[in-house]
């Protein structure tokens, strides 16, 4: 009985979804509603208006600069909430919590993590710096750095990881995404444009393309660094909590 | 044309291995035997898809990149399987035996 009901439900859902798919505009249809309003303008003017060869980067950092700065703020707020609830790890206390796992990490895994971590970090640097002209950018690169540090921390323990990325190094960098975004935005006002216009559109017109490109890259680096540090700090705060709860052996 | 056929063959082999791996992951009785098909997916399945893509692309740089990706994939997936299996053994998880199912 149960099986029949669930089968009926699933087939009804499937038919419904197939109808929705059938009524969707075709892939690549030039007359579909999403292609009629802003997309042509982005595709035609983005490169000369934003000076970014990658249209998506241009949209995210220029046309939707406010949106992105909001996202950066949300990430920073998440860290602030985690730290408000869990508190920052205290380095002196971590020492006693080293490697409480019932299964010590195997030498194979340790060697492989040691071998692969530099490549992962190299790839993330590439993702951040190449975000201008290829898929990628600050958020993605920062997430990759965070992931590499998460792998490192789960294998080698919090003590080793927090020795390599100490707190005094993380604390100032956590807000860097937010701060750099607003510095660049205010530079736009100083240069006589609007907020987040990537500096002086009126002054130094022949200098503008490279200046805009560099400011975009700086924002990307800021987002990448800030995002990575926020992820790492959240992980460290949560791991310390976990290890403090674990029963003393 | 020949290149396309080779690509299709290799990609189909890869897809077939992914199908086998997923079926095995769902149908096998315990962690050790599940580990076996799921690691096959990553190694043989993904690598044959990549060989197919390399044949299709044909440019030297793409092939080099694909070989690099393949190396990283083989290294990390083998390590991952090793870590899961080792931790299962160390935690004294008993392997499945046929008699247990017959008793139930």
If you had to describe this structure to a student in words, what would you say it looks like?
By secondary structure, chain A is an all-alpha fold. Chain A has a domain of 141 residues. Helices cover 73% and strands 0% of the residues of chain A. In chain A, α6 packs across α7 and α7 packs across α10. Chain B is mainly α and 104 residues long. Chain B has a single domain, classed as Helix Hairpins (Orthogonal Bundle). The longest helix of chain B is centred in the last third of the chain and has 31 residues. Chain B is elongated and about 55 Å long. The termini of chain B are far apart. Chains A and B meet through α6 of A and α3 of B.
Distance between termini of chain A?
51 Å
Number of helices of chain A: 10
Mean pLDDT of chain B: 87
Strand content of chain A: under 5%
Helix-strand pattern of chain B: HHHH
Rounded Rg of chain B: 17 Å
Classified by CATH, the class of chain B is: Mainly Alpha
Under CATH, the topology of chain B can be stated as Helix Hairpins
SSE diagram, text form:
The complex is a heterodimer of chains A (249) and B (104).
Chain A: H1 2-23, H2 38-50, H3 55-63, H4 65-86, H5 91-94, H6 107-129, H7 138-164, H8 167-174, H9 176-190, H10 208-245
Helix pairs in contact in A: 2-3, 3-4, 4-9, 4-10, 6-7, 7-10, 8-10, 9-10
Chain B: H1 2-27, H2 31-57, H3 60-90, H4 98-103
Helix pairs in contact in B: 1-2, 2-3
Keywords (chain B): Membrane, Transmembrane, Transmembrane helix
GO molecular function, one term (chain B): sodium:proton antiporter activity
Organism (chain B): Candidatus Solincola sediminis
Primary descriptors:
heterodimer, A: 249 residues, mainly alpha, 10 helices, B: 104 residues, Helix Hairpins, 87% helix, 0% strand, elongated, MnhB (chain A), MrpA_C/MbhE (chain A)
What is the compact description of this entry?
The complex is a heterodimer of chains A (249) and B (104). Chain A is an all-alpha fold and 249 residues long. Helices cover 73% and strands 0% of the residues of chain A.
